[in-house]
């Protein structure tokens, strides 16, 4: 049985891993790392995730979100500010009220990846 100590081919899995590694190296700038950290911190709240899921359905006024997530208006507004700073939601003034919408739908993919990565959903 011959052993191949020096192989001259790359498997598809190795090529994919190499491509992913190259993409990650592009991300490794201080600015990008800070932006990624901000995004991840913004997702580190069950209430903010509830807000994101509500906004995935359609844009909402703050008072609607307060009812949907069953929290106080000041608390919901505080969480919306965090999501807006992270670029996850947009805000638009309509008269005396603010309407919030999902600015970055790809955040839903991040939530699904987290769920599929083994997040314990049992309790």
Explain what you see.
By secondary structure, the chain is mainly alpha-helical. The protein has a single domain (14-116), classed as Arc Repressor Mutant, subunit A, CATH 1.10.10. It is 59% helix and 11% strand. The protein is built from 6 helices and 3 strands. It has helices at 12-27, 30-42, 46-57, 62-69, 73-85, 106-116; strands spanning 60-61, 89-94, 97-102. Strands 1-3-2 form a 3-stranded antiparallel beta sheet. The longest helix is centred in the first third of the chain and has 16 residues, at 12-27. The chain is elongated. The chain starts with 11 loop residues before the first helix and ends in a 7-residue tail after the last helix. This is HTH arsR-type domain-containing protein. GO terms for molecular function: DNA binding; DNA-binding transcription factor activity. Keywords: DNA-binding, Transcription, Transcription regulation.
Attribute tags:
123 residues; Arc Repressor Mutant, subunit A; 3 strands; 59% helix; 11% strand; elongated
Structure, briefly:
The chain has one domain (about 15-115): Arc Repressor Mutant, subunit A.
Give the topology.
Layout: H1 12-27, H2 30-42, H3 46-57, E1 60-61, H4 62-69, H5 73-85, E2 89-94, E3 97-102, H6 106-116
Antiparallel strand pairs: 1-3, 2-3
Query: What is the topology, as strand order, of the major beta sheet?
Result: 1-3-2
What would the CATH topology be?
Arc Repressor Mutant, subunit A
Give the % helix: 55-70%
Largest sheet: 3 strands, antiparallel
Task: Kindly provide the radius of gyration, computed on alpha-carbon positions and rounded to a whole number of angstroms.
Answer: 21 Å
Structural class: mainly alpha
**Shape verdict:** elongated
Any idea what the CATH superfamily is called? Answer: Winged helix-like DNA-binding domain superfamily/Winged helix DNA-binding domain
Number of helices: 6
Series of H and E elements: HHHEHHEEH
Enumerate the spans where pLDDT stays under 50 for 5 or more consecutive residues: none
Task: Report the count of strand segments.
Answer: 3
CATH class: Mainly Alpha
Separation, N- and C-terminal Cα atoms? 52 Å
- Proportion of β residues? 5-15%
**So, CATH architecture?**
Orthogonal Bundle
Average pLDDT, to the nearest integer? 85
Oligomer class = single chain
Organism: Corynebacterium glutamicum (strain R)
Protein name: HTH arsR-type domain-containing protein
Pfam families: HTH_5
Keywords: DNA-binding, Transcription, Transcription regulation
